[in-house]
Amino acid sequence: MNWAYSLSWPELTGIIAFALLYIGYAVRTWRLAAPLGQRGWRLGWKLVLRGLAFALLTVALLGPAYGVTQQPVRTAGKDVWLLVDVSRSMDAPDVAPSRLQKAQAELSALISRFQADRVGLIVFSSEAYVQCPLTYDQNALHLFINTLQTSLITAGSTNLAAPLELALTRLRATPQALGAAPRAAVLVLVTDGEDFGENLEPTVRVLTRSGARLFTMGVGTLEGTRLLRLNGRVLRDSRGREVVSRLTPTPLRRLAAQTGGQYFELTDRRNEFPLLVNALNRVEGQAEQVRTVSVADNRYRYPLALALVLLALDVLLTIRVIRP
Known about the structure:
By secondary structure, the protein is α/β, with parallel strands linked by helices. It has helices at 9-33, 44-62, 99-111, 138-146, 161-173, 201-210, 249-258, 273-281, 301-316; strands at 2-3, 64-73, 76-85, 118-124, 128-135, 184-191, 213-219, 225-226, 244-245, 263-266, 286-287, 291-298. The longest helix has 25 residues, at 9-33. The protein is elongated, with a radius of gyration of 32 Å.
């Protein structure tokens, strides 16, 4: 025997209230009958009847489950690809503790909100790699998100085209059931917006034709900050100038607008990840085939029906406590 709900304070409060009120009712009846030389104990069997009915109602409320039944479940899901920038600039501390670490925390919270959707992870810098293929496994996704660091990929100039092209390749390779509509696909690009790659326009045109929507999350500040080497020294370019990394929102806004998505920011003053979650929730998933799942058979109907029968008997059977 299993229970759908545990006995908690609302149920306990109801039990205590029932007991106190019925005791008060019995005492009042006895006090009224005593001066007339009569006994009010005739309502004793009513107490048993009502107490049993109340107990059965409580049992029904807790949801007794016995046995297993097969039930059809129809789900609607979508494919969400997270494209995360792990270039050296994501170590910048203008968003504490760093751009990448802050993004990691927010992404972990994000994937927990999409348990009915498949989520995949692509990391990129100058090149892009699939860190985790599309999966429903929340634990695996959390593990991969928590292990993100800028040393995963050889240092190089950020190329935004690389992760988009890889995501498109994966979308084309996603198997589809015969005659079924393609699954809804969403890309979430998390980066500071610095792009030193080639022209993005051809890739964006292909992405737009694919029907996938691109949501971009700009991480960093417009003021930017200096980048440091592993030894703590300031990173300098080939001309000896200090390298300053800044959030570059313009290309990210343009990418989102061209693909029907939206642009959001994660800065030292503003966190728009909750807005991103709401936007992703509004993207309708493709209905999948009906699945049959095993669920515990909730048998609350039986104690509920018996309690109603006892309450009906309580109403129909009357007694005279005080006789004239």
